[in-house]
Amino acid sequence: MKRLIRWWSVISLILICSLGFLGWAQPAVATMTGRQTIPLLAVQTKLSEVTDEMACPALDQKIDLNNAKISAFTNCQGFYPNLAVLIVQNGPYDKVEDVLKIPNLSDRQKALLKAQLKNFTVTPPRVPLDMRMPDRSTSPFMG
Asked: Do residues 69 and 129 lie in contact, with contact meaning Cβ atoms separated by under 8 Å?
């Protein structure tokens, strides 16, 4: 019986020690994966270049400029949140091209709007402005 207890305690001690030492070696082993990093070359387009495919990809239906919430512009690269807020705040619009007459638009914003005029529509306003804009207390860009 003493022999069994002694044997059991030695095996337990060896098991506990080996698990403890393996835990310390883990960060060192993780760095020795044998993989080398491969440099990645990327090309960035000029920020002033605006193309049709970069602004509003795959819209199923047109965005109504007089009734859309600013969240409707989240799929349009470069629109959300700043340009979307300007579009919503400066409505209502009589025709789609009126969106280009928003005061203080940058050249880039005008180029984005011109490239996406075909994705916009104008209908009579039905949704009040306060329902189209986010709550000021929860929105970081509404000051």
From this structure: no
Provide the 3-class DSSP secondary structure of residue 31: helix
Partnered with residue 63 across adjacent β-strands are: 120
For residue 61, count CB atoms less than 10 angstroms from its CB and return exposed for 0-12, middle for 13-18, buried for 19 or more. Answer: exposed
- What does the pLDDT read at residue 143? 47
What would the DSSP string read from start to end of 41-98?
------TT---HHHHSTT-SS-EETTT--GGGGTTSTTTTTHHHHHHHHT---SSGGG
Among residues 120, 122, 113, 121, which one has the least CA distance to residue 78? Answer: 113
Instruction: List, for residues 60-95, the tens digit of each pLDDT value.
Output: 788 888 888 888 888 888 887 888 889 988 888 999
Domain locations in the chain as residue ranges: 52-132
Out of 3.40.640.10, 1.10.150.320, 2.60.200.40, 1.10.390.10, select the CATH number for domain 52-132. Answer: 1.10.150.320
